[in-house]
Design a protein that fits this description.
The longest helix is centred in the first third of the chain and has 21 residues. The strands form 4 sheets. Strands 8-7-9-10-6-11-14-15-16 form a 9-stranded mixed β-sheet, with helices on both faces. The protein is built from 7 helices and 16 strands. 25% of the residues lie in helices and 25% in strands. Helix 6 packs parallel to helix 7. A hairpin with a 2-residue loop joins strand 12 and strand 13.
Length: 330
């Protein structure tokens, strides 16, 4: 127990040191409410970065999940680079769905502004584009609000994202990258982070099947698909149904250096997240062609086992009539 406690404290100290080097570690100071004595408790919290800049509580995009927002130190930073990481290629759709959920929360406050999604041709050919009709039905996003920029190379995509991140005409910018390219290093991500800070706009970095390389993003969320629970009704869970889409979210890096794992469900009607505390495995819904289930099978007949086939899967002489005739001479 003593060794594990020492190891845990050592790891925590190293993570704090790394965060200080990257300039992403906040120190929490308790600021008294206006007109209240300095020793009054329960006042609002102010986040101070390096003792220079002060971030107010509205500087964060709250997901609506109290435990997740608390672990992130208030939520996702509005004016910063945030990394959403999918460990495998098959998680590309899940990462995109989670990013669109965040975009839906952003557009609730910045209505009318579009979103720019930047990626390479390889990205869009591998993962595809979001379904236009589903944008409004699931996320409340109008198709004309989501703009796509397909670049031939990663270098071009980085340039487009940097130029777009400095503009206030976009509510947010999304940059999707595949793998762990060398050009996506600390220098490139620092430029993206600085552009987002200057424009006071969020920049989401979506990564497909890449390593957890060092970046300037203060927050890294590792997102994968979670089993959907059964659909809830007035009478309780509906057996044999599939409920809302669910995401498994792990905090890979945050300003508070606090790890955490959460299972979130997206409510397409209210356009909000909800936390699921228990893991329920969804099943395939029943067929809608009829109300009655399939009838039970009748009597089961046993058949004798067939002889093993000959080599090269050729039929035996008893099975092939041609084998009964003699071979041709000469």
């Amino acid at each position: 127990m003593a060794m594990s406690a020492v190891a845990r404290d050592t790891v925590f100290a190293l993570r704090r040191q790394i965060a200080k080097i990257e300039g992403t570690l906040p120190e929490r100071l308790q600021a008294p409410a206006p007109g209240a004595p300095a020793d009054v408790t329960g006042s609002d919290m102010t986040i101070v970065r390096r003792g220079l800049a002060v971030a107010a509580a509205d500087a964060f995009l709250r997901t609506g999940i109290e435990r997740l927002d608390a672990a992130l130190g208030g939520g996702l930073p509005r004016a910063a680079l945030s990394e959403i990481h999918g460990l495998e290629t098959r998680d590309a759709g899940t990462v995109a769905g989670f990013a669109l959920s965040l975009v839906s929360l952003i557009l609730k406050e910045k209505q009318g502004l579009p979103i720019l999604w930047v990626g390479t041709a390889e990205i869009f050919h591998e993962a595809g584009f979001p379904y236009a009709r589903g944008l409004h039905a699931l996320f409340g996003i109008e198709p004309e609000q989501l703009l796509f920029s397909e670049a031939p190379k990663l270098l071009d995509a980085l340039w487009i994202a940097e130029e777009a991140a400095r503009m206030t005409a976009f509510a947010a910018v999304i940059l999707e990258v595949r793998g762990s390219p060398q050009r996506l290093d600390l220098t490139a991500t620092r430029r993206l982070h600085a552009r987002a800070q200057n424009a006071s706009r969020p920049l989401l970095l979506l990564r497909q099947a890449g390593e957890a390389d060092p970046t300037a993003a203060p927050v890294r969320l590792i997102v994968s698909a979670a089993p959907a629970a059964s659909r809830e009704t007035v009478a309780g869970p509906l057996a044999g149904s599939i409920g809302r889409p669910a995401f498994k979210v792990d905090i890979g890096k945050s300003r508070t250096a606090l790890p955490g794992q959460f299972t979130l469900e997206w409510n397409p009607n209210e356009h909000a997240f909800a936390e699921r505390t228990e893991n329920s495995v969804a099943v395939v819904p029943a067929s809608g062609r009829g109300t009655d289930p399939a009838p039970a099978s009748g009597a089961v007949l046993a058949f004798p086992a067939l002889a093993a086939p000959a080599s090269c899967d050729q039929p035996s002489r008893q099975q092939h009539p041609a084998h009964r005739s003699p071979r041709r001479a000469g």
